[in-house]
Write a structure and sequence with these properties.
alpha+beta; Methylamine Dehydrogenase, Chain H; 6 domains; 5-stranded mixed β-sheet; 4-stranded antiparallel β-sheet; 12 helices; elongated
Length: 900
């Protein structure tokens, strides 16, 4: 069998490929060539890259370079160290307390060993020692020293039956004996002269791959035999470079020219991978198998192939096919309805059926006929051509009635179709996206954008008798409604809610059995098993509505579903097809269930933590200064597993939850206090969360020392306040005392004043009484004097003169005036002084008159006191006014009372 025949066996156009994830040099930001791959016990991937060591923590790639900038040719994860080999350099990487990797060179241990131009291409651990090879020798590192075991061009290392085997280029195989010496492995005699590229253990047997063939050890006769003639014909052309052994009798061969081939020894099936079906490059430099995933280090990029995935893809890389809306699987071919037309896919490739161009929404197989509902017509699909049913308008859906009549939902109504032609059902003029039969002559029709209708037809299905629009429960219009028949009951999914039809009330009601599935649209029902899609997240749900439930996250389909037009087709109770944007997927439910039972979920971890200025140690509880807490950044890792997302929950003064994006988690402007950052794989069971504790220190003005200062200031303020209040209290008390004393004094003064006023009033009265009595007395005496003057002729002249003198002396008595003056001054203390200061020319007689006027005495009352007539008083008053220079309108008495 020649190479071209072999290629035809497995390079079929219908080959479905497992998921292939491409990591380009742009995405991982390093060089294109990747020479070796390793994985640690956590699931972190390490790649020997042209620019350094690439580390993939499940979320992000990070490059670590050597100081020399040398190419790293080999990598091997052993315990907590990552050993790498490069040009004249060997050492290991180890995480420091801050979570970053630091390189420790072991070059100093090459004592008395001439490295010359050595590059170390392979590393392996055996009996807790590290063995590494170059094209010039084999070396051993025991943790303390490095020793060179042998010279030679060594190309591969492998442990087989508790012995370390090494391939020595064209010189066959050797193994390490108990004395750490290399001994020739005799069965490899037949391999002498062949360039050995790789050796592996497969199903307990030693496999040797040379550049142009692959051999297996036959222990019965201690010789190497050709493993597969057909496979060797492919290898001879492609040039073998690496071998990977997989479970289930599968072997993967990576080549330098034609990608890789997976060979199943049991059924002799081949599956080929190269640039035409998903790989970035055909040159395989390194390979690693880890938990069902094949990691490929390529000459240009890194690829990951999920080898035994329950999901297989057909992807049209040419872009000709476009988005697939429906498909029908036949034994040797598949018909695909896409936005560019109807295609036939078979071993000859993908071909557009003549006449089936244009957007096709649906394919329906009825008996042996396949009907396509397209954007411009409805037609029957044959092997290479189509037969047009109706090209007057486009159509959405084809349905078979209980009586085997065919109805087609079009853009302008419903057609009844048979081999003899078609008939448009009257009274229906709206577009019908989907139909279902409630009974033999009652159909439900869903408008593509809004509205659901219940239509009663005649028995021959040619005329509509009743057309009733079905209202929603909440009064909202039905937007893009979906109608189904579930357990012989009409169900409606509208506005992200499940409803069902109640025939008794002729209305929709809540579908209680599906109430928990609101926001889940039904894709397909098959044998009481249901596939739903979450219209918010695009995750798929497989359930029997009882105890069985299986979830398929959208990333498993590479987010390739046709949004709004998701479709799933059941081939059997286990095999389903899913339409995609650029092809379709094949899903094996049984394999998916088995996979779910053996899920590997790794634990998330923090690979780094920093603020605006500092990288913090992860070995102890970080304390972040408040001034640097404006932006806190975490590097999050989730070693490669069946969970691809990390959820987080930050609790403390603030509570924040979410999903880590691109391996970076940032928090801004956290308040001071202690925080717990909880990380957990999305979809994992409880108990897998990891908690990291850190604290944001208070700002300087809230630090312990400042709090002590604040306390001191507070106590000082309290003391000052106490002192101030006490002072105020004392002042208040003093003011009260002063006020009291003042009030007391004022009260005493007032009482004294009142007493004095009373005394003055009393003296004034006494003065007035005395004055009036004196006036009366003088008046009487003057009357007596007058009477005596009348009778002076009758009396002795001498005796009369004596009496008259005595009367005059009594009237003008100085003693009496002095008593008056004294009493007057007690009442009007400064009257005479003020009056004389104002009018210094006043005589004593003037002062006397003024005093009488001050007492508000009349002229008649004054006259006796002064011993003159009333006329004399008036004349004296006149003269006094002139001395005082008073206006003639000014009352003299009022003037004296008011001003003196």
């Amino acid at each position: 069998m020649n190479f071209s025949v072999l290629t035809a066996n497995f390079l079929t156009a219908q080959q479905l490929n497992p998921p292939i994830q491409n990591y380009s040099s742009i995405s991982y930001q390093a060089a294109s060539q990747n020479w070796d791959i390793s994985v640690d016990n956590k699931g972190i991937i390490y790649v020997a890259n042209n620019r350094g060591l690439l580390i993939y923590n499940g979320l992000t790639w990070k490059l670590h370079t050597l100081n020399s900038g040398a190419i790293i040719r080999s990598v091997y994860a052993f315990k907590d160290k990552i050993f790498t080999g490069s040009y004249r350099e060997f050492g290991y990487w180890e995480r420091n307390k801050k979570g970053d990797f630091e390189y420790h060179s072991l070059k100093s241990l090459f004592k008395n060993i001439d490295l010359s131009d050595e590059e170390f291409w392979g590393i392996i651990a055996f009996e807790d020692n590290i063995y590494f090879r170059s094209f010039g020798g084999l070396y051993k590192y025991d943790g303390e020293k490095i020793a060179k075991i042998a010279n030679g061009v060594f190309t591969s290392l492998q442990i087989f039956k508790n012995k370390l085997f090494v391939a020595k280029a064209r010189d066959g195989l050797f193994y390490l004996d108990n004395q750490s010496e290399l001994k020739f492995y005799q069965p490899s005699q037949e391999l002498l002269g062949k360039m050995i590229a790789d050796i592996k253990v497969h199903q307990g047997k030693l496999i040797v791959g040379t550049r142009d063939a692959i051999f297996s050890l036959n222990e019965n006769n201690n010789s190497f035999e050709i493993l597969s003639t057909e496979l060797n014909q492919f290898i001879a052309k492609a040039e073998l470079n690496k071998i990977i052994s997989l479970p289930n009798s599968e072997l993967v061969i990576g080549t330098l020219k034609n990608g890789l081939v997976k060979w199943n020894r049991k059924n002799n099936e081949y599956q080929y991978f190269d640039r035409t079906n998903g790989l970035q490059n055909n040159t395989i430099l390194s390979m690693l198998q880890f938990r069902g995933n094949l990691w490929l280090g390529l000459d240009n990029g890194i690829d990951r192939v999920t080898i035994n995935s329950p999901i297989k893809f057909y992807i049209d890389t040419s872009g000709e096919l476009g988005a697939v809306y429906d498909l029908i699987k036949e034994p040797n071919k598949t018909f695909l309805a896409s936005n560019t037309g109807v295609y036939r896919l078979n071993n000859n490739g993908l071909n557009l059926i003549e006449g089936a161009e244009g957007h096709s929404w649906n394919l329906e197989k009825i008996d042996n006929k396949i009907i396509s509902n397209s954007n411009s017509a409805s037609f029957k699909v044959n092997e290479n051509t189509v037969e047009v049913i109706d090209n007057s308008t486009g159509s959405f859906h084809t349905l078979v009635s209980p009586s085997n009549e065919i109805l087609i939902g079009t853009y302008i109504g419903i057609l009844k179709y048979s081999d003899t032609g078609f008939y448009k059902i009257d009274s229906l003029s709206f577009p019908v996206k989907k139909m279902l039969f409630e009974t033999e002559n009652i159909i439900w029709a869903a408008h593509p954008y809004e509205g659901i209708y219940r239509i009663k037809l005649t028995n021959d299905l040619q005329r509509a008798l009743e057309i009733n629009e079905i209202s929603s429960l909440d009064g909202l219009s039905h937007v893009n409604p979906q109608i189904y028949k579930i357990n012989n009951q009409v169900a409606v999914y509208s506005n992200q809610k499940w409803l069902k039809y109640n025939a008794f009330s002729d209305s929709l009601e809540v579908f209680e059995e599906f109430k928990e599935l609101n926001s889940y649209k039904l894709l397909v029902e098959n044998d009481a098993k249901y596939w739903f899609i979450n219209t918010k997240t695009n995750d798929l749900l497989y359930t029997n509505l009882k105890e069985q439930e299986l979830r398929l996250p959208s990333w498993r389909l590479d987010n390739r579903l046709v949004k709004g037009y998701e479709n799933m087709i059941a081939e059997s109770d286990s095999i389903y097809y899913i339409s995609l944007k650029d092809g379709f997927a094949r899903l094996n439910v049984n394999s998916l269930i088995n996979e779910q039972q053996d899920l590997f979920i790794s634990e998330p971890f923090i690979a780094g933590f920093n603020d605006l200025e500092t990288d913090y140690s992860l070995a102890e509880k970080p304390e972040i200064p408040f001034k640097n807490a404006g932006l806190l950044s975490f590097d999050i890792g989730l070693p490669f597993s069946d969970s691809r997302e990390v959820g987080y929950r930050l609790t403390g003064n603030d509570t924040i939850t979410g999903i880590v994006e691109s391996g970076k988690l940032d928090f801004q402007n956290l308040d001071y206090g202690e925080y717990n950052l909880e990380l957990y794989p999305v979809g994992a069971k409880n108990g897998m969360a990891k908690t990291f504790v850190f604290s944001v220190m208070p700002p300087w003005y809230l630090s312990i020392w400042m709090k002590a200062v604040y306390l001191l200031l507070f106590l000082s303020a309290v003391g000052l306040l106490f002192w101030y209040n006490r002072r105020r209290l004392r002042k208040h008390q003093w003011l009260i005392e002063q006020k009291f004393e003042k009030e007391h004094k004022e009260r005493i003064d007032r009482l004294e004043r009142e007493r004095l006023m009373d005394e003055i009033d009393m003296k004034r009265k006494e003065l007035a009484n005395t004055t009036m009595m004196a006036a009366k007395k003088n008046e009487v005496l003057m009357e007596i004097q007058g009477e005596l003057n009348k009778d002076k002729a009758k009396m002795n002249e001498y005796r009369l003169k004596h009496i008259m003198n005595k009367i005059n002396g009594a009237v003008k008595s100085k003693d009496e005036w002095q008593v008056f003056e004294t009493n007057f001054n007690e009442i009007h203390e400064d009257f005479f002084r003020d009056l004389l200061e104002t009018y210094p020319k006043l005589t004593s007689k003037d002062l006397k008159l003024c005093s009488y006027l001050k007492m508000n005495l009349t002229s008649k009352e004054i006259a006796p006191l002064m011993g003159i007539s009333v006329r004399g008083v008036e004349v004296h008053r006149y003269r006094l006014r002139k001395k005082m220079d008073l206006d003639k309108n000014e009352n003299l008495t009022n003037f004296l009372i008011k001003n003196f």
